[in-house]
Amino acid sequence: MRKDSRLSRMLHVLIHMDQLNAPATSEKIASMLNTNPVVVRRTMAGLRDKGYVTSVKGHGGGWSLATPLSNITLLDIHNALGESSVFTIGLSDEHTSCPIEIAVNQAISDVLIEAEALLLERFRDVTLDVLAVGFADYPLNQKEI
């Protein structure tokens, strides 16, 4: 089962961006994340559409924060990335008429819904500036933005 690491990766990028004095290019971000600049642009576009980052094309351009980290929550970024499920546990669908499978799936589904609601509520309470505490003097290495 593949995990979705977009939230943690974008939080990492946004906190680094907060420390920069210049925009970060898609290429620099891609290098830091070991991915393709096209993937970065597509992901960052969702954050731009929600007003968390801005982009400037051309020489000297790149991505910059559009709002302070103190005004952005984990939930904001989770939602901007497309509101994927926070859990990758799947329900069985091999015996859909079996009463035991139906009962098991219902129990798992109910617990996952409740757990996800609690987690997302907590995401609402955590701003990105809290995650960045202690990193103000963190030296960026050349591979990082």
What does this entry look like structurally?
The protein is mainly α and 145 residues long. It has one domain: Arc Repressor Mutant, subunit A, CATH 1.10.10.10. The protein is 51% helix and 6% strand. It is built from six helices and two strands, in the order αααββααα. The chain has a two-stranded antiparallel sheet. This is Rrf2 family transcriptional regulator. One of its GO terms (molecular function) is DNA-binding transcription factor activity. Pfam families: Rrf2. InterPro entries: Tscrpt_reg_Rrf2, WH-like_DNA-bd_sf, WH_DNA-bd_sf.
Features:
Tscrpt_reg_Rrf2; 6% strand; two-stranded antiparallel ribbon; WH_DNA-bd_sf; WH-like_DNA-bd_sf; Arc Repressor Mutant, subunit A; DNA-binding transcription factor activity; Rrf2 family transcriptional regulator; mainly alpha; 2 strands; 145 residues
